[in-house]
Specification:
Elements (H helix, E strand, L loop, with lengths): L2 H11 L9 H19 L11 H7 L17 H5 L5 H14 L3 H4 E4 L1 H16 L11 E5 L27 H8 L3 E6 L19 E2 L2 E5 L5 H9 L4 E5 L6 H7 L2 E4 L20 E5 L2 H11 L28 E5 L9 H16 L3 E5 L4 H19 L1 H7 L5 H8 L6 H22 L5 E5 L16 H11 L4 H6 L3 E8 L5 E8 L4 H13 L10
Helix pairs in contact: 2-13, 2-16, 5-7, 9-10, 11-19, 13-16
């Protein structure tokens, strides 16, 4: 009996199956992931023990550690900044924009109009009485349809959740955003089980870009990118396991923050790959992302992995008393970097330098290897979480999602163990090599502007997977290192589609990224641009 027959019988004995036409592509993908692990693991002796990763992140944080002073309630910062007189008026304006937009019914799978208006009126009464909950008081927000809300069933971009019981309580981040004064406007389109960087969803339709609806929105937080990009809502909340907050923000021309791993509770959020999953905001500006992050983060008794490090809310425009330093690699045009993106990146460096930031040259990170390590973690954890559904209801998965999950059937336990064992050491080496004495590392977020929907759907599965890999090439490996990242718009390509860069920070140093992003946005107006 040959090896392929043995593997097939082994899978069948466990109630699992890989369709014959998908087998060669899945096997080739797994072999590529295994090779990356083999090469790296050969440099780690058996005595290299796994360090608790949360502890490693705290150890590798900037000297002095993160600022843990809790945020105090402030003025309704975003209400004032957006020139809104009342929360009720803002909610009504958002609802009108959604109903008038060709993307409205796609970006939003469920609007909570009546509840949002009632909450907005309550926030206005509180404001009139001097009871301001904080910077997010009265702000309408959208939620990716993967977070529990009491009395509702989050669909997770799938048809498998239709009969699932309603949630008995809000997800931790929903509780915290409400407590901070935010108003939940509704629930947003997402890729099926958050497994497409383009926003592909065979059940709901592909996410479409507000700058050109024949192009993808990016994903998997596709509705978040569409809605903030189109001006439906000022803030949306997504998740980022390999770029799923940064990619839609980048392609739709808005700002986003992927926090340090374990900084924001995942309790009540759909799990995809718990070793990589993060929850983060999309908004117009870096400072707005900062306000939302501060409201969401901190210890949660229902998520034991969450760090007990509530952030402060600094004045991100106040000088630190020292110059800021950004590390910049030498970039070359190619399949992962268009000429337009390289030129926009170079211009971003010029703006930062003129704003007083010191730029230092560093080697280009090996993002392909980091991407492979992150992909192996995802391939191991996701099918384990979906084990029962894959056995009982595999026909309800889209083919692309099923193919990607099936990789996990062939990933070995010792490869998975080594990837996690090496992680703290590889993060430390990355910081030493690519952020030496620097506050952040500057990289593109995507190779170019958003690809067309046709090029991202009507192709053989192997070609689609290569396109997915290319689109998320700059983001996936950052999740393996668990580092914070801020993505922001820096230009337009020849098709008039947004181009974005990202700042990668040290562990727990989100405030530095927000400071740098805010500095850039004070010297440019890309974050103010809107699709025509």
């Amino acid at each position: 009996m040959d090896l392929s027959s043995s593997v097939k019988q082994w899978l069948q004995a466990r109630g699992l199956e890989i369709p014959a036409q998908d087998g060669p592509g899945i096997l080739a993908a797994v072999q590529s992931l295994n090779l990356s692990v083999d090469v790296l693991a050969s440099n780690f002796p058996m005595e290299t023990l796994p360090e608790p990763f949360q502890r490693a992140l705290v150890r590798l944080a900037p000297e002095g550690g993160p600022n843990t002073q809790a945020a105090e309630p402030s003025v309704p910062e975003l209400l004032n900044r957006h020139g809104q007189v009342s929360s009720e008026g803002w909610v009504k304006a958002c609802l009108a924009a959604i109903h008038a937009s060709p993307l409205g019914s796609l970006a939003w799978v469920d609007l909570a109009s009546d509840e949002a208006l009632a909450t907005a009126r309550q926030r206005d009464r509180e404001h009139a009485q001097g009871q301001v909950r904080g910077p997010l008081h009265g702000v309408p927000i959208g939620l990716k349809d993967m977070f529990d809300v009491q009395g509702r069933t989050a669909q997770w971009g799938s048809r498998l959740r239709g009969e699932h019981p309603v949630a008995t309580r809000d997800a931790a981040i929903v509780q915290r955003l409400k407590a901070a004064g935010a108003v939940v406007l509704g629930y947003q389109h997402m890729a099926e089980f958050a497994m497409s960087p383009t926003g592909l969803n065979v059940h709901l339709g592909s996410g479409r870009n507000p700058w050109n609806t024949e192009h993808v929105s990016g994903g998997s937080s596709s509705g978040a990118g569409m809605s903030v990009g189109a001006g439906h809502v000022p803030v949306a909340i997504g998740s980022d396991t390999g770029g799923s907050v940064r990619l839609p923000a980048a392609l739709c021309g808005v700002t986003s923050l992927k926090p340090t791993q374990y900084r924001v509770s995942l309790s009540g959020a759909m799990p995809l790959s718990p070793s990589l999953d993060c929850v983060g905001p999309l908004a117009r500006t870096a400072e707005e992302c900062g306000w939302v992050f501060c409201a969401m983060s901190g210890q949660d008794a229902n998520d034991p992995s969450c760090l007990d490090l509530p952030p402060s809310v600094p004045d991100w425009s106040t000088p630190l008393g020292r110059s800021l330093t950004v590390a910049v690699p030498q970039l070359e045009e190619g399949p992962y970097l268009s000429q337009a993106m390289r030129e926009a990146f170079d211009e971003t460096c010029r703006v930062l330098k003129e704003a007083g930031v010191r730029l230092v040259q560093v080697p280009m990170p090996d993002l392909q290897t980091l991407s492979n390590l992150g992909s192996l973690v995802l391939a191991s954890e996701t099918p384990a979480l979906h084990r029962q559904w894959i056995r009982s209801s595999s026909e309800h998965y889209g083919r692309q999602v099923r193919r990607r999950m099936s990789r996990g059937f062939l990933v070995s336990a010792y490869d998975y163990f080594d990837v996690l064992r090496m992680r703290p050491h590889l993060v430390a080496a990355f910081l030493q090599q690519h952020l030496p004495g620097a506050d952040a590392l500057l990289l593109p977020t995507t190779p170019d502007g958003a690809p067309s929907i046709d090029a991202s759907t009507n192709r053989p599965e192997d070609e689609l997977e290569r396109e997915f890999s290319r689109l998320s090439w700059w983001t996936r490996g950052i999740n393996y290192h668990a580092l914070p990242a801020l993505s922001f718009m820096v230009g337009l390509n020849g098709q008039g589609l947004p181009l974005s860069a990202q700042l990668i920070g040290r562990p727990l140093d989100e405030s530095m990224l927000i400071r740098l992003g805010a500095l850039y946005q004070r010297h440019t107006d890309w974050h103010l641009r809107r699709p025509q």
